[in-house]
Amino acid sequence: MRAELAAGAVVRNRPSRGTLQVTAPEDLHWMSATLSPRSRRASEQRRGQLGLDEGILAAAEAVVLAELADGAVRSRPALVAACAERGVELDGQQAGHVLRHLTEMMTIVFAGPEGRADMFARADGWIGERRDVRRAEALAEVALRFVRARGPVTRADLGRWADLSMGDVDAGLDAAADDLETVTLDGADYLVARGTADIAEDEVDAALGAPLLLPAFDEYLLGYGTRGPIISATGLELVCPGRNGVFRPMVVVDGEIVGTWRRTVNRAGVTVTVEPFGTLTVRSRKALAAPARAFGEFLGKDAVVAP
């Protein structure tokens, strides 16, 4: 993934809810235009509290664009320092707000990472071809992609994830209706991609067969309003202690969230420590070695699951 980010094959930015997401570069402009307006309006309401106004934003934008001219890539600290040198002093919260604003407006995007530093580039230089999609078509495509990737889902799930009004949700679902169908589960209506409602049980078992080590805040849990089918009430309390909005990394076995995990990284490698909610079978614990190894490969280290 780091190589793809560095090459611009995929791009990290904030197309919806101000949340960092990895997206095909050609989709970022239309997705941001469709999904970020509500987030931008909410962000604008905080500017007075942060001591920012339109003049400061415009001045900071001019400095950032000058620093990123001719295909240059700069880190956040370098951009903040450049602003200060030109008389635009920004504290940590102000700098974060300015950079978030510029990414949501698709003025800049996150470039390939360098170590732990966030790097930025001008959107018009980093992204080559872009798709121009009208709003009605965009709403339909968002709805269809969401349902295909995450179904069964509800209307509310789509609205929450995409940060759209329910009017826009319904417009998108209506436009994509030929490719969707509704199923009723426990008395509630859910949307699925057409042709997938009658998926065979062995296909479900195969899809859920590989255990997962998911990161904190993963959409496997956060993407749905109804979480009962994949985690118990006790387990949810352990994943998000005190319901404080901070979620821990999750262990998934047979489609169910059955524990949390943490990592210890040192020169020797990575140790993954699993903390199950109950008893984890020997077979399941052994199977977690595969996703642990994959995580280690991502970090460029050997990884093992602690006994």
Question: Could you characterize the architecture of this molecule?
Answer:
It is a single chain. The protein has 307 residues and is an alpha+beta fold. Helix content is 45%, strand content 20%. It contains 16 helices and 12 strands. Strands 8-9-10-11-12 form a 5-stranded mixed beta sheet, sandwiched between helices. A 3-stranded antiparallel beta sheet has the order 3-5-4. It has a two-stranded antiparallel sheet with strand order 1-2. A hairpin with a 2-residue loop joins strand 6 and strand 7. Helix 9 crosses helix 11.
Second-tier CATH architecture of the largest domain: Up-down Bundle
**CA-atom Rg in angstroms:** 22 Å
Q: What order do the SSEs take from the amino end to the carboxyl end, as H and E?
A: HEEHHHHEHHEEHHHHEEHEHHEEEHHE
Total number of strands: 12
Biggest β-sheet: strands ordered side by side in the sheet: 8-9-10-11-12
Let me know the average pLDDT: 92
What coarse outline follows from CA principal-axis ratios? globular
> What portion of residues belong to β-strands?
15-25%
